[in-house]
């Protein structure tokens, strides 16, 4: 199944300051800003496009339970994940299972923009956090 980069997620501490950099320095276009308090997400998200590539700035809203807070504590600010668009998430998950690649089932969800997503187990991706996503109609 073909996979293309959908977006890059960047862990930040300050959404507004980071937005300024992506808009004023990189020439990005601001698209949306929202908060997700879903269990296991607890993040503030700013969506921008820089030269056609979507970038999501992710800041923790709960420093105890947010995976972004844990990420920043362990690795610091920076690239959190790379998301790959697949034509059909369910089919892509079957392919991963056949290949022995595990996913983090608790991360499967649909975001506010109608994107279905799930994260692959970093133990099976050489430590990189990878998201698979699709946009069902």
From TrEMBL:
GO MF annotation terms: metal ion binding; methylmalonyl-CoA epimerase activity
Gene3D superfamilies with a match to the protein in the record: 2,3-Dihydroxybiphenyl 1,2-Dioxygenase, domain 1
Coiled coil spans: none
Pfam families associated with the record: Glyoxalase_4
Highest taxon of the lineage: Bacteria
GO terms for biological process, alphabetical: L-methylmalonyl-CoA metabolic process
Record domain VOC: where: 4-135
Keywords: Metal-binding
Annotated family: Belongs to the methylmalonyl-CoA epimerase family.
The protein's name in its UniProt record: Methylmalonyl-CoA/ethylmalonyl-CoA epimerase
Organism field: Salibacterium qingdaonense
């Amino acid at each position: 199944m073909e996979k293309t980069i959908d977006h890059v997620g960047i862990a930040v501490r300050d959404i507004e300051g980071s937005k300024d950099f992506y808009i004023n320095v990189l020439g990005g276009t601001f698209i949306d800003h929202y908060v997700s308090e879903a269990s296991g997400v607890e993040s503030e998200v700013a969506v921008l496009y820089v030269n056609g590539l979507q970038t999501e700035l992710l800041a923790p809203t709960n420093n105890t339970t947010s995976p972004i807070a844990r990420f920043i504590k362990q690795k610091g600010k920076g690239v959190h994940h790379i998301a790959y668009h697949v034509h059909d998430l369910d089919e892509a998950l079957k392919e991963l299972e056949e290949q022995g690649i595990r996913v983090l089932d608790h991360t499967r969800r649909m975001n506010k923009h109608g994107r279905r997503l799930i994260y692959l187990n970093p133990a099976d991706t050489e430590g990189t956090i990878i998201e698979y996503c699709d946009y069902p109609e």
